[in-house]
UniProtKB/TrEMBL annotation:
Keywords: Cell membrane, Cell shape, Membrane, Peptidoglycan synthesis, Transmembrane, Transmembrane helix
Keyword Cell membrane tagged: yes
Locations listed in the record: Cell membrane
Protein name: Peptidoglycan lipid II flippase
Transmembrane intervals: 27-48, 60-80, 100-121, 133-152, 172-192, 219-239, 259-279, 300-323, 343-365, 377-395, 401-420, 440-458, 470-491
Organismal lineage: Bacteria, Bacillati, Actinomycetota, Actinomycetes, Kitasatosporales
NCBIfam families: murJ_mviN
Pfam families associated with the record: MurJ
Sections of the chain in a coiled coil: none
InterPro entries from the UniProt entry: Lipid_II_flippase_MurJ/MviN, MurJ
Xref: CDD domains: MATE_MurJ_like
Membrane topology: Multi-pass membrane protein
Amino acid sequence: MLQAAALGTGLLATTYNQANTVPTSLYFLLIGGALNSVLVPQLVRARAEDPDDGAAFEQRLVTLVICVLGAGTALATWAAPEIISVYQRDTPATHDAFELTVVFARFLLPQIFFYGLFSIFGQVLNARNRFGAMMWTPVLNNLILITMFGLYVGMMTAPDKVADITGAQVRLLGIGTTTALALQALALIPYAREAGFRFRPRFDWRGTGLRKSANAARWTLLFVLANLVASTVVTRLASSADAALPHDGVGYTAYSYAQQIWMLPQSIVTVSLVTALLPRMSRAVTEHRVEDLRADLSRALRASGVIIVPAAFFFVAFGPQIAQLLFAHGAANAAATTPLGHMLQAFGLGLIPFSAQYLLLRGFYAFEDTRTPFRMALWISGINIGLAVACHLLLSPRWAVTGMAAAYTLSYAIGLLLTALQLRQRTEGLLDGRRICRTYAKLTAAATGAGSAGWLIARSCSHSLASVSWTPALSLTAGGITMLLLFLLLARLLRIGELRGLPGLG
């Protein structure tokens, strides 16, 4: 919210957001995908099977990760102009925006190293069933960012054009953003030591099992690359909408803000479940307890669906009100947030297949199968790219990126179906499919009825209230409370038992 108030939702904000996206993308391409999906099962296996409880494997792995990240960060920072040229064109009309994005990128690309440091120490803790530190340290990051954007808004004149931003403002945003992530990563080190990890650089990598990690990571690298290609195409096409309508909030920044809000339930619920379940599922596979893995996946899908399904319908019902309430402040006015609200609605229902597919992929990772997720990513990315290009060619700049959000939803719906069929074969039988589908059908029925009623209440409030400034908050509150109460009532009538077991997995 503060970022939107400081930079708006147009072309100026896109220069910062694009530069801030690049380190994340490159980190996952370098090693992040392997860390998050391949190495946790292997850390668990090393701790279970090695005579030293996996200590030597951990030290070699951390040394390798630090070396790869250090070299990759230095190379990326040097090649910043070439990297940015992949995401946006450098033309006479957009040269100022391109140059500003490159300057931001040089400040922000060192985040690659700190993303990796945070992940590797976090996975060392996860393998020991220590989850608390990795959960709260991002809060430290966000507190620093809140302070930074607060200073930007409170102490400086916020520019509305790319050419008006000052060197001091660029340095505040660039240094502040990277410092926040660095502190988030470094804060994990004392917790890793407390958990028993002692880091000593070890370069004796040959013949120690890291080749298996590298082979598994090869497919994960291709998985990340497929997703990165799709996101790069969407970023470039969305940026062209910003260039066509630089002050209307119809391009990449609006798309990224909508996607961040849309992913909030996934980040809070599904990612938390996966963080706790992946080591447990990996141990189940190691001990040949496939039935336990299937039970964990079924329980996680049903428990997360209690939040994910109504949240998806909430975004569809109240997208414009959410966008105006959160982002129509400071440099962003109400009109500039309307496209963002429509994008949030277009993303809406895609939250259900996106979250479910994310969970199902962890079933493959528990088997240390990274090839199948790559194949699924190819399908999803190919469909997303094809539909995004069609939106760019067939729709006006005002609606093109909203169409791309809908394309993202459709691509993951198809991807979920393909992933479920593949995992069913991998687990040698039914994936508790009837029980899962029955639960999701009930949740969808309850959320549809509740969301429709909430939308009607919010719409009537918007038409009847005279106060322009408070209308989004009041209509969203009235509609949201209506939807929540009616959803709980319908869920009880439909006997959705998972609602009672929501606090935990048993």
